[in-house]
Amino acid sequence: MLVSIPMIIIKASSINEAVRSCFHKLYQEKIRPFDQDLYRESPLLLQICWQKTHVLHVSILNNQFQFDKNYKIISDSDRTINKVISHYQTKLLDSNKLNLLIRAMKNKPSSRRLVLDIWQNENDINSMDEVPCVIYFWFRIVSNALEMHTHMRANDGFKKFWLNLEIFSAIHDHVARTIDKQVGQYLHIVDSFHFYSKNKKEIGTLIKIL
After folding, report:
1. What is the CATH number of the domain that holds 115?
2. Within-domain flag for 64
3. How many CB atoms lie within 10 A of CB 11?
């Protein structure tokens, strides 16, 4: 008998609510992952319909990501935080990809081609190095508000999920302000939302206080 992994579907109004709900839902999953390195695994569909006022702890200023280091998020180390921010700085800002997308958006706001692709199949599929978890970002203006969708092949629910949401929200906010639009809904789609077995002890402690 085939066993399908149920999808986690969450609707939230803030990053904190999204993290708390997704973390608990994934922890409750009981189907053993096929990958022995994983403790829990499920596809994820997260929708964030922002509160009118929401605080961002990562921002983009002068084409650089700025992180509020006084704000504590779930991760295993400052090294992970700095590494992830550096990754998106290189992929999106230093490469000028984000600015090119904004220019295209201004030229044709109704386009369905407003895609920032991160995954490069010819380079990444057989690479022995660490490869991007994000496949692409997709943008669309709806009712004078900018929607943003992120599609990830994988997302570490313990080490990187909260930080990813902060970074992606900073991108969303930056693009919306640059084109003078409101921030619309955010969709976060993950094929493999997971916890690693090596983090089982920390996850068990965190679930009690999150």
Report:
1. 3.30.572.10
2. no
3. 13
